[in-house]
């Protein structure tokens, strides 16, 4: 069974994370697959909108830590950076339907979406600091830019979970809906977007993103370099070991 499933419905490409027993945690192979899907969708005139969501009880729990420890990202080319650049350069509308856990990259990747609908069960978290790491997907730029420094610092430097209503208040989420209405609501929005004039829609997105795209690319480059250092640090090794041993980490 594929870890990422796709389905075409008219001009809408549905992408589903499909590791429900692992809360859809991302492996290196999944990053590459998702990046390729977005790159191909960007070139396919038959695809006007991408809608993504998760199977089971979660959207995406971030990195699969076992896979992550075996394949830590480097400072330049990595599966993670491949997906990040695919998201930055994706000019078609991207709609997310989020339920359950959206942790780490499962939260930061949402900053690249144009519409984010969250079920009432959705729980978000940027736990990077608790693992001796820094955020990814350009979040060190996009979160202060969106929410202001104080609110971004709270999310990034404390790493505490927050619920769907707080995500909506921050502006991370477009709208919170009952879980049973989530996919219907997101699909209806994707359909509305698919019925708009395609070239004008893409031009609108490109122009709105123009002023921050270069800064975002710079932030991603710096994040990748710092992340590669942090993931190989004593703090990160202790955090990962403590996670698998189910104990609090002992920081130096």
Molecular structure report:
The protein is an alpha/beta fold and 252 residues long. The chain has a domain at 4-179: 2-enoyl-CoA Hydratase, Chain A, domain 1, CATH 3.90.226.10. Helices cover 47% and strands 15% of the residues. It contains 10 helices and 9 strands. The chain has helices at residues 28-43, 65-70, 79-88, 105-108, 139-147, 149-158, 164-170, 182-194, 198-230, 234-244, and strands spanning 4-9, 12-17, 49-54, 94-98, 101-103, 115-119, 123-125, 162-163, 175-177. The strands form 2 sheets. It has a 6-stranded mixed sheet with strand order 1-2-3-4-6-9, with helices on both faces. α1 (28-43) packs parallel to α3 and α5 packs across α6. The longest helix has 33 residues, at 198-230. The termini are far apart. Pfam families: ECH_1. Its main location: other.
CATH fold descriptor of the domain at 4-179? 2-enoyl-CoA Hydratase, Chain A, domain 1
Number of helices: 10
CATH architecture of the domain at 4-179: Alpha-Beta Complex
The top level CATH class name of the domain at 4-179: Alpha Beta
Largest sheet: 6 strands, mixed
Cross-sheet strand order for the largest sheet = 1-2-3-4-6-9
Distance between the termini: 42 Å
Structural class: alpha/beta
- The percentage of residues in β strands lies in 15-25%
Helix and strand string, N-terminal first? EEHEHHEEHEEHHEHEHHH
- The global form is globular
The CATH homologous superfamily of the domain at 4-179 is termed 2-enoyl-CoA Hydratase, Chain A, domain 1
In percent, how helical is the residue content?
40-55%
GO molecular function, one term: delta(3)-delta(2)-enoyl-CoA isomerase activity
Pfam family, one: ECH_1
Protein name: Enoyl-CoA hydratase
Keywords: Isomerase, Peroxisome
